[in-house]
Amino acid sequence: MGLQVLVVDDSSTMRKFVKKAVTASGLNVSQFFEAANGEEALKQLEENWIDIIFTDINMPVMDGITFIREAKKDPIYREVPIVVVTTEGAKEKVEEIRSLGVDAFIKKPFRPEDVRNVLLDIEGAEFELEELPGAEGGDF
Amino acid sequence: MDKAALEKMLIEVVYNVFSTTFFSLVEECPDPPCEECDDIYHGRIEFNNGEWGTLDVVISRDFAKNVTIDFLGKTEDDPIEESEIADVCGEITNIVGGDISTKLSDITGEYWKLSIPKVERKNQCPPLHFEDPNHITVFFQNINEDKFIVHLAVRREI
Amino acid sequence: MQYIVKIADMKVVQGTSGIIVTHALGSCIGVAIYDPKAKVGGILHYLLPESSLNKAKAQANPFTFGDTGIPLLFKEAYAKGANKRSIIVKLAGGAEILESKSNFNIGKRNYMIARKLFWKNGILIRGEDVGGTISRSLSLDLATGKVAVKSPGMGEKIL
How far is B54 from chain A (nearest CA, A)? Predict the structure, then answer.
């Protein structure tokens, strides 16, 4: 059975980029859900089963740090792996984000290959990435 | 940090951002262009609400469109929405600004908070803060000589 | 059996024994692909990034250019039974052989066209050894799918 993936970023094209990279990584995704800020992301969590979250930090309305804090308060959402994808790289900020209990950290700018590498590294999740169910598009 | 060091940092950041995430090789223009910018996107992001500085990216719509095609992994025949081009310009501004804020935070030991980027399509070059004592303007180009400008104004000691 | 891929050349083989190898990768890029299920492997050794640089040459030998050679490498592998879903891509080369201050040197451009084409086609690069100023050899062992890079004085590196 495929996984349900939530991608949170205020940039709609960055959400597309992350989705394409996740698919190209070979993760078997049955459905993507999207949110443009933390508030929308919490709503998506309430309404849908989510297996893994990719989230930006610097967003309007509700930022990623507040979103992760809220999600981690809930006993069900707390278990969902979170990959942070952000421009934030200042040492103390990175430490603050990591202390929230996130599973992986991708610093923008990043290559699509970085998404595959963090998926392989998430402890306890052991995602299968050997086949490429979504290898399509382009001209070869 | 003197102006030359700041400029070097800016050039490295812009090269790295474009080659890593946007699949484009860019470098500093040998002769800064004085072309008419009649169709451009202007992205701006602020550090600490603008009190510590601002970063502007001024990019021709044609170049921005090509970057959008590569970023989204589309082919030239695939449809592209104007809103996608604007969004990519915002993301370029965001990532370049974020990388600079990261570096300045580590140098100064204080957190350079980034705003949400604003993007507008314009038919003339926007006024940049040339009056700021610590401002840097760098003209870049890609292999096809499509040009863009990155302007960094720093308003505090670093 | 050793299959040698020359400069601006390609070999795709279906089988479980033998080695495909290409030498003298300077600013050129060697792309190795392997489908472990179909036991199909291939190497392309291209010289220049875009066929728009010389269309007549691209027509005479499409393996000269990344943008014409890479699609042909995949198409040949599909014709021999490979499936896009299980193909593993690794690459090497893209060095800066003639000293150049420009970011537009051929090595960098050769590497960028590969990244761009793979991204357009939803394929991630699974291993690489690129850049620098060294010359490399790239080999693919058809028995195991192992891809190795060798360079003078640097020994062998498994990608």
Answer: 16
- Cis omega before residue B33 (within 30°)? no
CATH number at residue B113: 3.40.1550.10
Three-class DSSP category at A95:
helix
Find, among B53, B31, B36, the residue nearest to B113 by Cα.
Answer: B53
Task: Give the residue numbers spanning the domain of B126.
Answer: 3-154
Overall domain count for chain C: 1
Q: How far apart are CA C15 and CA C21, in angstroms?
A: 15
Q: Quick: pLDDT tens for C5-52.
A: 999 999 999 999 999 999 999 999 999 999 999 999 999 999 999 999
Spatial distance between the Cα atoms of C7 and C63, rounded to a whole number of angstroms: 8
Burial bucket for residue B7 (CB in 10 Å: 0-12, 13-18, 19+): middle
| Residue A112 forms part of a structural domain | yes
What single-letter DSSP state applies at residue C103?
Answer: T
Nearest C-alpha in A relative to C121: A138
Residue ranges making up the domain that contains C14: 2-158
CB contact under 8 A, B23 and C119: yes
CATH code of the domain covering residue C122: 3.30.1330.200
Catalytic residue among C28, C43, C77, C147: C28
Residue that the structure tokens 């720093």 belong to: B154
Touching A (3+ Cβ pairs <8 A), the chains are B, C
Please check whether residue A134 touches C, CB under 8 A: yes
Residue type, B87: D
The total of structural domains in chain B comes to 1
Query: ipTM > 0.90?
Result: yes
Where residue A21 sits, what CATH number does that domain have? 3.40.50.2300
User: For residues C65 and C68, what is the distance between their CA atoms, to the nearest angstrom?
Assistant: 6
Asked whether the beta carbons of C34 and C140 are under 8 A apart, the reply is: yes
At C88-114, the pLDDT tens digits run 999 999 999 877 777 789 999 999 999
The range of the structural domain enclosing residue A101 comes to 3-120
Q: CB under 8 Å to A72, separation ≥6 — which residues? A: A78, A100, A101
The mean pLDDT value for A122-129 works out to 75
C28 is catalytic: yes
Q: Does A114 touch chain B (CB under 8 A)?
A: no
Query: Is A60 part of a structural domain of the chain?
Result: yes
Report the candidate in B147, B151, B140 with the shortest Cα–Cα distance to residue B61. B147
Using DSSP's 3-state secondary structure scheme, residue A113 falls into helix
